[in-house]
Specification:
Layout lengths: L1 E7 L3 H14 L4 E7 L6 H8 L5 E4 L6 H15 L4 E6 L2 E3 L3 H14 L5 E5 L8 E7 L2 E6 L6 E5 H7 L30 H6 L17 H4 L2 E4 L4 E3 L18
Parallel strand pairs: 1-2, 1-4, 2-3, 6-10
Antiparallel strand pairs: 4-9, 5-11, 7-8, 8-10
Helix pairs in contact: 1-2
């Protein structure tokens, strides 16, 4: 029914907890794909020791960033079997029991009996992305948004085809998948900007034509469906993110 792709880099402990929650909490057919971006912390050894035979491991030959990892995951997973959906997770994800059954069930209900169109759907509620309106579907509260974080996204492969692969660079020419320089307060910007490309989200809440891809979900006329509470994330700062690790200062 669904392929699950995870990008990871030097976050062995996060990834281990993520995989444990998926294995324990997923009660629909799924296939797991993991893209390791040249980790040096024993991630691959951990996967071989604890999760051998649980999924497909894709190993980068050189550091390539989260965007390349994402593109590779959905391309390889689609060719690997005939599952309908692709779900992307970052490696700090913890899923609730029954998360996928609930998400796919609600999505498929609304898809054929609704007056709105949903492209992406997720179990992770990001309050900074405004809610357009709420609905109740099969007894579940559903939030409709025009954007969502690129940390947990699910959609049919037909939707990913319309989006297309994410370009390696942002609109300003900077590489996607790695953080920008530190700000005066020591913080970093928004990682990979995958959400800008895929959903058309802008940090000030204003969609600027041409700033995101012409095939992003806003221009496709679709909503993002969120069921809060099904997915949480454990890494709280940019330095803990998949794309933040390369620039952590070594003391």
């Amino acid at each position: 029914m669904i392929n699950i792709g995870i990008t990871t880099y030097n976050r062995k402990d996060f990834l281990e907890r993520c995989l444990e929650s998926i294995i324990q909490g997923t009660n629909v057919p799924y296939k797991l794909f993991i893209y390791d971006d040249c980790s040096t912390d024993g991630t691959v050894d951990m996967l071989r020791e604890k999760f051998k035979g649980k999924g497909v491991l894709l190993r980068a030959s050189e550091r390539s960033g989260i965007t390349t990892g994402f593109n590779t995951l959905w391309k390889v997973s689609e060719n690997y079997n005939d599952y309908r959906y692709f779900c992307y997770l970052q490696d700090d994800t913890i899923v609730a029991p029954g998360w996928l059954k609930t998400l796919v069930g609600v999505y498929e209900t609304q898809e054929f009996a609704s007056d709105y169109i949903v492209g992406l759907f997720s179990g992770h509620h990001a309050p900074e992305h405004p809610t357009e309106f709420e609905r109740e579907i099969t007894g579940v509260k559903v939030l409709l948004k025009r954007s969502m974080r690129a940390t947990n996204m699910i959609a049919p492969y037909t939707f990913w085809h319309k989006i297309g692969y994410i370009p390696p660079n942002n609109p300003d020419g900077s590489p996607r998948g790695f953080p920008g320089p530190r700000k005066p307060d020591g913080s970093r910007g928004r990682g990979s900007n995958m959400d800008v490309y895929i959903t058309g989200y802008q940090s000030k809440g204003v969609f600027v034509p041409g700033a995101a891809a012409p095939t992003c979900s806003w221009k496709l006329g679709t909503y993002c469906m969120v069921i809060p509470g099904l997915v949480t994330h454990k890494a709280l700062s940019a330095d803990e993110s998949t794309w933040g690790n390369p620039n952590i200062e070594k003391v």
